[in-house]
Amino acid sequence: MSAYFRKRFAQPAARRKPAPAPTLAPPPPSGAVVDAVLRFCDVQEDVGGGRVLKRLSPARARAADVKAALGKAAAAEAARVSILWNAREDEIVRVLTTSPAMQRLAA
Q1: Which of these, 95, 86, 106, lies nearest to 32 by C-alpha position?
Q2: What residue segments make up the domains of the chain, in order of their start?
Q3: Share of the chain above pLDDT 70, in %
């Protein structure tokens, strides 16, 4: 490739668009956290169609037995996880998480 070609067809630095920054999604909750939400859930909301939304209340997430099963950090994470449960089939439909900032706004 000649020097003339590189000069002639190269874009000036001002016209180049920067690459978009990758958006990093938070990692999904661990299997232990999902299992703990199913075992220790104290809030169950019927959403219709045989489905139930299961989650831990903040007080339940701070309970000694939950902290003993998960540890302090994972217990705090479990308080941010909700599970959409199919009661007819006894299976998980979807695992939902909220960020700590969204949880503060909801409170």
Answers
A1: 95
A2: 29-106
A3: 77
| 100 torsion bin: left (phi>0), alpha (psi -120 to 50), beta (else) | alpha
Residue type, 76: A
pLDDT digits (tens, 9 = 90+) for 7-48: 555 556 556 677 777 777 778 899 999 999 999 999 999 999
Find the length of the chain.
107
- Residue 25 CA, chain-centre distance (Å), reads 8
pLDDT at 83 over 80: yes
CA distance 28 to 34: 10
Give the position of tokens 């959409």.
Answer: 84
Residue 97 sits at φ, ψ, to 5 deg, of -130, 150
- Classify residue 11 by its DSSP letter: P
- DSSP per-residue letters across 71-107: -HHHHHHHTTEEEEEETTTTEEEEEEE--HHHHHHH-
